[in-house]
Structure formats: C-alpha cells, structure tokens
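TL;DR need structure tokens for one chain.
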Amino acid sequence: MEKRLLIANYNKIFGDEGTKELFFAPSRVNMIGEHIDYNGGYVFPCALSFGTYGVASLRKDKRIKMYSENFSDIGVIDVSIDELEFKKEHNWTNYVKGVLVEFMKKAKINQGMNIYIFGDMPYSAGLSSSASLEMLVSIMFNDLYNINLEMLDMVKMAKVVENEYMGVNSGIMDQFAIGMGKKDAAMYLNTATLECTYTPLILNDYEIVIANTNKKRTLADSKYNERKQECDSSLEKIQKIKQIEHLCDLSTEDFDSIKHVLSDIEQRRTYHVLSENERTKMSVKVLNQNDIKMFGKLMYQSHVSLRDDYDVTGKELDTLVHLMMSQEGVVGSRMTGAGFGGCTVSIVAKEFIKKTITKVSKEYKDIIGYDAEFYVISVGPGVHKL
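>> reply
TL;DR here they are.
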C-alpha cells in the first residue's frame, strides 16, 4: 500500500498530530521442512512480498492505542503500558502487548503510542500473520523508543511472545524468516543453532503459487500443541537410550534401532520429523543444481508425510494438493504452515498458471463447496522501516 494512503488512514483514526513512522513486515512461506523447527531440524522458508504495514507515533501519555483495518469491527483498543496482561477480548492486540512486555524487560518505557495496522495478506491461513505482526511492532518499538536491539534479539523475543504470552508452542522459524529475510532468497536455517545460509530462489520458467483453502484455524486452538507434546514425549523416551538433544539429531537410519521404545503414534510422528529433515537437506542440494522438478517431487513427498504420518492436513489441503498435482505444468505442491487448514504452496510453470488456477478453482469449489484464493507471489525482504 502507498505511504500516503497509510498515513491518510492513520489520520482518520488518530488525527494528524505527531511524527508518524511507517514500517512493513512480510508474511512468510516455508517451501519445505514442516513441523520440525521445534525439533531442531532444518527449514527452508522465505519472506513474501505481502504482509503487514504499520504507522505509529509517540504519545505524550502512557496509553497504547491500537487499530487494525483488518479488524475494524473491534475498533480502537486502548490500554496503559502499566496494564499489559493478556485479555481474550483484546484479540489481535494481545500480540502487540506481548511484544511490549518483552521490550519493557530490556528498557524503561514511559511513553505511549498510536498504532495503525493494515495487512494485505490472508489471515489465519498458515502464512504467519501473527509472527508478521510481532516482528512489525518489534521494529516499531525498537525505532520509536530508540532501544537499538539487534534483529536476532527481536526474533528471539517474538518467539517468547508466541510461546509464553500467547501460549503457542511454536519454533523460531516464522519470526526468523520475517526478521531476517532477503529478496529473491530462501533461508536454509538450522533451527537448533540458528546457522543460516541464503539460497537464491530464482525459478526461471516457474513461479510460486500459494492457494488459500479459506478454512480458518488458530494455532492455539488447533492440534499444534498436541503434536509438539507428542514429539517431546518421543524425545524423552529416546533420550533414555541415546544421547541426543533434539529429535532431528537422529537420522532415518537410526530410526529402526530406537522405534521400539515409542508408541505407534509416536513412531509415525517421529518418522515424519526425521524424513522431513532429510528431505529439506536434499531440497537445498537439488535447488542449487537447478533441478526444479526434483525439488517439486520432494515438496509432494513432504505433503504425503504430513498427511499420513503427522496427520495435520485435512480434506481441504489434501484436495488442493491433489488438484494442483493433477495439472500440467505443476511440478510440486504441499501444505505449508501448521496445517489443519490454511494454505498450500506449489511450483507452477509460468505458461500454465492462468489455466491451472482457473481449473483448480472450479474443481475445488465443486468438491469443498466454497472458493479457494490464489496468489502468485514473489520473494521479498524481511521486516523494515519504509
């Protein structure tokens, strides 16, 4: 969105006084490496060209006033910086409050702020709208309060907000991808060490197409935390017979010798984690060799594992992936994000994109009963001041 429109919209809500600063935090998509960032594995996300915009200015009192164009029915939420406890009725602004709680552990903050938010990304769709908001307000607070934290520090703080303030036991991938993203590059990230290599994501004759199932879910209400608990239980049992720190310290070759200590469900969950970690490693190798078709095959194998072993897909996601893989010019497709709804990511030959979207749109609606939404996306930079 243009700066002048953002400022005009801010002025409608908060008036024209004060020095206004503008910021942008992208959404993210994980190309492969799903549900392993909380198991110490490798992931391969990238920042996207759409995301969350913010306009902010300091106030003379201690009030934080927040408004989102995407949740206009809620109106302005007004809190004191001295009263930042989680309240369910405060909806999206809990993320803002959670980030401010973390910042107040680092610096003395006595001044309030007006915050206007506009997102041009789909919400509750597996593209990390919550992490986008967390990183947006992190850079906003860092800038306006002159705190001068490093980006990686803010990434780690945002993960704490997600885990401890919001109650979602997620890994660090989303915040890292949004905070540290680079244009036209994916991040080959070791989530155990945070060692990151940037890999050019230039697909030449292909494009990345995201399809939103339009089945909404929230991480805290989904089975996300249940999967995390299943992995923790598996790790605890394995650690009694093998010295490891994370599940992804194992290989699939190790699995046969240790699986007898796990329940049937734990075996399936663990096998997904181990095989997905190895698929991610292989994906980066084949992409560096410009083997887009093999990369696409690994994406589809990832989806099958998430469907059969990790059980986080569902009819909508499986339908979209099946329909996409049935189209000429589609080399790979998989669910992305936590699952249980949300989005798929596919690699589609440019010449077939229009035909593919038209056909899959119709067939999806015939099967599911409502529309999917499609986005041909580009890979953008991480969170930044505009």
